[in-house]
Specification:
By secondary structure, the protein is of the alpha+beta class. It has 2 domains: 3-9 and 100-345, Pseudouridine synthase (2-Layer Sandwich); 27-93, Structural Genomics Hypothetical 15.5 Kd Protein In mrcA-pckA Intergenic Region, Chain A (Roll). The chain has 7 helices and 17 strands.
């Protein structure tokens, strides 16, 4: 889903492909000490340490164990599956390496471009910017080749020009800044929520009522650090307006539906989290699809070749931050979602 850069705080489970997203926020090398009491001992070591170190994922802890970066009472430990013993563990997190992204001749579907900004239709499988595990093939790599030295540098070495982003597997409209003035202006528009954003989602079942608003604070899940969740306390306020456009299957018990979503806020995975919290996750979503859809829907998904969440950023509208021109862009569903829609219509 659409995510303003100001809301990122270094965490992007989707773009990082399962690697630890928070390490980008560490100054490193960083030495952390964890004391395990006799009462806390006995659990699996990698999970115990990950639970005590909020900036490290379980996978990252496993990697640090394997490379000898973790010791207990001065002695290296390496078996992630071993039981956590009472004592003091020292965890050395090496300083993150941030290589400058290289330009790559990746084709872009350009919807609009002037000297200040560029609007593209992002395909599935393209992360917005480089991150551990996704150092190349990103939109930034493509923009560096396409725009050259004109790309705004406000986003930093790893995110030049990037003002907001879509999840790696979400398709649709994105805007990037080519000048610092455009970057600052676009960032202000996103901060004020003065952006027209509409998404098409195909979901399991059909939300009730058919038109409404989902509100719920979104933050990192307390149960799975690679996921976001609606939280009772903490997190950040998030508001999603939705309208069911079409229902597939029996009217009294729909198997799936097409939902138009419009955002007031732009939190990480907002639409996916909000819809899932109501029991209607996006079809094909590997992260938030908590249970399988009906057999007939699964077959439609397979026939459509859908290997990602069924979510598309269909509309992006804003006032050009430099020229003042009103701009609005609308993109059709990509091939896999078109095939999905056609298949669902036959239910």
């Amino acid at each position: 889903m659409d995510d303003p850069i100001d809301d990122l705080t270094g965490f992007d489970p989707e773009a990082l492909d399962g690697d630890d997203g928070d390490e980008a926020g560490l100054a490193g090398p960083d030495l952390r000490r964890v004391e395990i009491t006799p009462e806390e001992a006995g659990g699996r070591l990698d999970k115990t340490l990950a639970d005590r170190l909020p900036l490290l994922s379980r996978g990252r802890v496993q990697a640090l164990l394997a490379t000898g970066q973790i010791t207990r009472d001065g002695r290296p430990v390496s078996d992630a599956s071993s039981k956590a013993a009472a004592g003091v563990y020292e965890v050395l997190v090496p300083a993150p390496t941030a290589a400058t992204p290289l330009p790559e001749a990746i084709p872009l579907d350009v919807l609009f471009e002037d000297q200040h900004l560029i609007v593209i239709n992002k395909p599935a499988g393209m992360a917005a910017h480089p991150a551990p595990g996704t150092e190349s093939g990103t939109l930034v790599n493509a923009l560096l080749h396409h725009c050259g030295d004109s790309l705004s540098g406000i986003g930093g070495v790893l995110r030049p020009g990037i003002v907001h982003r879509l999840d790696k597997e979400t398709t649709g409209v994105m805007v990037a800044a080519k000048t610092d003035a455009a970057h600052a202006g676009l960032s202000a528009l996103f901060a004020r929520h003065d952006i027209d954003r509409a998404y098409i989602a195909f979901v399991r079942g059909a939300p009730r009522p058919r038109k409404g608003t989902i509100e719920g604070r979104i933050g990192r899940s307390h149960h799975d650090r690679k996921k976001m969740a609606v939280l009772r306390t903490g997190g950040r306020e998030a508001t999603t307006h939705y309208e069911v456009q079409h229902v597939y299957g029996p009217a009294d018990k729909p198997m799936a539906s097409k939902v138009l979503c419009q955002l007031e806020t732009g939190r990480t995975h907002q639409i996916r989290v909000h819809l899932s919290s109501k029991g209607h996750p996006c079809l094909g979503d590997p992260v938030y699809g908590s249970s399988a859809p009906a057999t007939a829907v699964r077959q439609v998904i397979a026939d459509a070749g859908l290997r990602r969440q069924a979510l598309h950023a269909a509309v992006l509208g804003f006032v050009h931050p430099v020229t003042g021109e009103k701009l609005r862009f609308k993109t059709p569903l990509p091939a896999d979602l078109q095939a999905l829609e056609e298949g669902l219509a036959g239910l």
